[in-house]
Write a structure and sequence with these properties.
This protein has 7 helices and 10 strands. It is α/β, with parallel strands linked by helices and 247 residues long. The structure holds adenosine-5'-diphosphate and magnesium ion (MG).
Length: 247
């Protein structure tokens, strides 16, 4: 089985003039296909920085990164852009939808951007995904006319448009109320279960972390001992069979 992600010895030091800030130090992280993993840690612990590195939005100052079997540090900027577009999906705290475009056009965007147009097949896939996230009746709505929770569901569909190997989510429920957050969480878990898409979700929300089969915890720029390795067990969403006479 090829790992989806293998990060080894990742370090990140930001330099501003004479000042240096070491944010990550010797981080190892492996994700297998189909994992649903939470990346937790206090604010400022380096979650977003690590996610940006894995998402090829930021180059680490140390370490190696293999994504879907490919060593990525040798790639040029243009190759990184292409790799990111084809192999990775992103969900941010704020949806970043294009306001003047419809839900369908926003979902199709990752496929359409390199070619410059939405083909009928792309449109169909975008509409199928919108149906799966419960927005079958909002496909032609402009993004501005959707609620916060609906926008984030569009963002989930968009992240899946190109059949990514890995979806990276940074505080995906951070700007939603509890109900909308629960729906967004349900959808990510459902996509993980049904399609086997691997998810790495940065969060400081216990509700989110508790729903993930695995938790990776960052502290002082390092993966906390015991947190980076084994699975925390299968997701337990439903109660087991109800014993007779106990309905
Ligand atoms: N471009 C940058 N220059 C200097 N320091 C940065 C930069 N980006 C992030 N940091 C610092 O890195 C630390 C981790 O930030 P971040 O990864 O956003 O943490 P988290 O997502 O866990 O809240 C913070 O102390 C932050 O100030
Ligand atoms: Mg963050």
């Amino acid at each position: 089985m090829t790992t989806v992600l293998e990060a080894r010895g990742i370090g990140m030091t930001f330099r501003n003039g004479d000042e240096q800030t070491q944010v990550l130090q010797d981080v190892d992280l492996t994700l297998d296909p189909g994992e649903l993993a939470a990346l937790t840690g206090a604010s400022g612990s380096g979650k977003s920085t690590l996610l940006s590195i894995v998402g090829l939005l930021l180059r680490p100052t140390a370490g190696t990164l293999t994504i879907a079997g490919e060593r990525v540090e040798a790639l040029s900027d243009a190759q990184r852009d292409l790799f990111r577009n084809q192999r990775l999906g992103f969900i941010f705290q704020f949806h970043h939808l294009l306001p003047d475009f419809t839900a369908t056009e926003n979902v199709a965007f990752p496929a359409a951007a390199p070619t410059g147009g939405i083909s009928p097949a792309m449109r169909q896939r975008a509409r199928d995904l919108l149906g799966r996230v419960g927005l079958g009746d909002r496909m032609d709505f402009p993004a501005t006319r959707l609620s916060g929770g609906q926008k984030q569901r569009v963002a989930i569909a968009r992240a899946l448009m190109n059949h990514p190997d890995l979806v990276l989510a940074d505080e995906p429920t951070g700007s939603l109320d509890r109900v909308a957050a629960g729906q967004v969480l349900d959808l990510m878990a459902e996509m993980n279960r049904e399609d086997g898409t691997t998810f790495l979700i940065c969060t400081h929300d216990e509700q989110v972390a508790a729903r993930c089969a695995r938790r990776i915890s960052l502290k002082d720029g390092q993966v906390e001992a015991g947190a980076g390795g084994g699975l925390a067990g299968p997701m337990r969403r439903r109660a087991g069979p109800v014993p007779p006479g106990r309905q």
